[in-house]
Amino acid sequence: MSKFDFMFVILMAWIGVHSTSYSAEMTVDLKSNYCSSTSIILSGQILKGDAKIFDTLVDKLNTYVKRTYGECHMPPTVILNSPGGSVEESLAIGQQIRNARLGTMVPYNGQCYSSCVFVLAAGIDRNVHGSVGIHRPYSSDIERGKSVEDIRSARTVMLNRIASYIEAMDVSKFLMDAMISIPPEELKILNDSELQAFRLIGEDSSYEEYRVNLSAKLFNLPTAEYRRKSAVAWRKCVNYSEPNVCVNGEILGIQLSESQARWTRLQKCNNTTKNESSQDECFVKYMVRGDK
After folding, report:
1. How confident is the model at residue 63 (pLDDT cuts 50, 70, 90)?
2. Those residues with Cβ within 8 angstroms of residue 35's Cβ, 6 or more apart along the chain or in another chain
3. Domain 5-203: CATH architecture, name and number where available
4. Are 114 and 86 a contacting pair, CB within 8 Å?
5. DSSP letter string over 63-99?
6. Are 218 and 226 in contact (CB under 8 A)?
7. Span 10-34, pLDDT tens digits
8. Which of 61, 91, 186, 274 has the highest local Cβ count within 10 Å?
9. What is the rounded CA–CA span in Å between residue 28 and residue 101?
10. Could you tell me which residues come within 8 angstroms of residue 210 by beta carbon, excluding any fewer than 6 positions away?
């Protein structure tokens, strides 16, 4: 039996999913306003066959999200708490995450060690609040009688595949060097600076451009101008109790009181729909134009 515990976190209705080799539990929140609040929780050791199971859950998640929200600007998230396991399965799960444009997160008190790091790397938006640990990838099941040359050849194939995967996920190629330097029986916990340097936290660069361009269009600004105004606004508003209200006001060049009034009208509009495309229309109408 797989040691994955998967869960759709959405709130409201409990749904049980069972198979002869695996059981999972999902929770659905039909009152959520943003599809970014949906998630799959992945916990436990990653074993052979788990990629296939994960794929079926992604299909269920995508079906739910598309039916309920339409287009998603903020991605659903895969929440990780795993000691690792099969390299092949982890790479396959990671590819499914990237294909589905999901985010990844290690929660507070969570861990993502060994091959789990490949899953973390796949997120188009990566967040780490727990601990991430690396060591050298290795084969856990070498057939009796295999020569050193055969093992070296198989190892070369595996490392080349990992290197290609890391490049495709827009993660630093130096992550591979750092992994190889740590013996399999040891574990190096990455600090914040290392997570940043290896690009295991933050947005995938292509997704970041997609998100920024979308926001610039909502404000009817050229992308470069939006980036400049947004950066200045966030530095100014970082300690404000409602930073989004402050940032929007700074970008639009309106008084804070007016931005708060527009924000209140925007929230009322958002509460009438769960479709993010419709919420974009709410944003333009009530925040950007300031309709009443």
Report:
1. confident
2. 65, 68, 69, 72, 74, 75, 76, 276
3. Alpha-Beta Complex (3.90)
4. no
5. HHHHHHHSS-SS--EEEEEB--B-HHHHHHHHHHHHH
6. no
7. 322 223 333 333 333 333 333 355 6
8. 91
9. 20
10. none
CB atoms within 10 A of CB 265: 16
pLDDT band at 261 (very low <50, low <70, confident <90, very high): very high
The set of residues, in sequence order, having a beta carbon less than 8 Å from that of 214 and lying 6+ positions away, is: 73
Say how far residue 19 (Cα) sits from the centre of its chain.
27
Is the CB of residue 133 less than 8 Å from the CB of residue 190? yes
Q: How far apart are the first and last CA of the chain?
A: 57
Domain boundaries of the chain, sorted by first residue: 5-203, 206-288
**CA–CA dist 237, 249 (Å, integer):** 10
d(CA 250, CA 101): 31
Report, as an integer, the average pLDDT of 206-230. Answer: 93
The pTM of this model reads 0.79
- The residues that bridge with 104 in the sheet, in sequence order, are 78, 126
